[in-house]
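A reminder from the course coordinator: this example appears on the midterm review sheet, so study it carefully.

Given structure:
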């Protein structure tokens, strides 16, 4: 991880959230609580000379697409609302709100062919609200060697290090210059994490859709039929490519468990499954469904993890 000492911003700096303007160069260590979770959960701590110090705040997705930043005492200091345009196809937006509900900043992810542009704007307009000219922007691969930076009037105010790809839990560092707003810096860092998650899910869903379109069926999924619970026919196979008739489906199932159908009693059917697969089916039919789903979920996690590594190494966005 990179540790950068940034130069102070010219006065008056970029004060947004009261009490969270950096007075000296600061470095924060951000780490996810879980290696894989449907909702964001991060902890933010001070860091000095590469050593993690006392905690500053927590970032939790308390509602869907609503990130709440709370200090260790539980006090809310900032809230990010993610706006997704599913039907129009417009790029996602992120709105940073103060505890009183007023919106102070806004980021739009503008997706291109091979990269994504982060468009940052302050609200209300800086010239009107603060009485001085102010330009802000987000750049990637800044001169400091970090992979994301916030520029204020041409001065580097924040740098975000590349996440550690080899850790199960996401982690990275955020460097803040004196005069820069700390919460804005941490908010942009979380947006980077969220963007990476969206890319991973898009790749995973694309692979799932391709396999489904091709009719691939690496392993059948079995569903318990309550009407025949406790009988030999209680577990019925359901395939991704549902082109089999009921008779063919039943025949494959009987072959799987080693029981030929009455019409095939005269000739021993050739099972497409190995003896080990048949043994597993006969011994553990009740757990096949959960096992298949568990394996499928882990496969998705692996796909997303691989994409995270690739995106971190080459930094396509």
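Designed residues:
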């Amino acid at each position: 991880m990179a540790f950068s000492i940034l130069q102070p911003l010219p006065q008056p700096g970029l004060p947004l959230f009261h009490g969270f303007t950096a007075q000296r160069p600061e470095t924060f260590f951000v780490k996810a609580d879980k290696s894989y979770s449907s909702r964001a959960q991060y902890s933010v701590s001070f860091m000095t000379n590469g050593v993690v110090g006392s905690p500053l705040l927590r970032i939790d997705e308390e509602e869907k697409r609503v990130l709440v930043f709370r200090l260790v005492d539980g006090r809310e200091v900032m809230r990010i609302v993610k706006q997704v345009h599913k039907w129009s196809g417009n790029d996602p937006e992120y709105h940073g709100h103060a505890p009183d509900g007023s919106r102070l900043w806004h980021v739009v992810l503008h997706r291109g062919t091979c990269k994504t542009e982060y468009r940052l704007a302050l609200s209300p307009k800086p010239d009107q609200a603060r009485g001085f000219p102010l330009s802000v922007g987000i750049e990637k691969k800044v001169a400091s060697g970090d992979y994301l930076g916030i520029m204020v009037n041409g001065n580097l105010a924040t740098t975000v290090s590349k996440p550690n790809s080899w850790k199960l839990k996401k982690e990275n560092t955020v460097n803040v210059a004196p005069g820069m707003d700390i919460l804005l810096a941490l908010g942009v860092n979380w947006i980077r994490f969220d963007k990476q998650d969206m890319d991973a899910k898009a790749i995973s869903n694309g692979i799932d859709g391709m396999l489904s379109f091709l009719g691939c069926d690496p392993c059948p999924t079995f569903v318990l039929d309550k009407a025949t619970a406790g009988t030999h026919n209680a577990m019925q196979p359901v395939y991704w490519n549902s082109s089999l008739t009921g008779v063919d489906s039943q025949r494959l199932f009987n072959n799987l468990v080693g029981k030929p159908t009455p019409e095939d009693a005269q000739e021993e059917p050739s099972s497409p499954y190995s003896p080990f697969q048949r043994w597993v089916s006969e011994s553990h039919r009740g757990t096949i469904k959960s096992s298949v789903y568990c394996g499928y979920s882990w496969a998705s996690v692996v796909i997303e993890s691989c994409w995270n590594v690739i995106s971190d190494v080459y930094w396509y966005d």
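Residues 182-214 form the longest helix (33 residues). Residues 215-283 form one domain.
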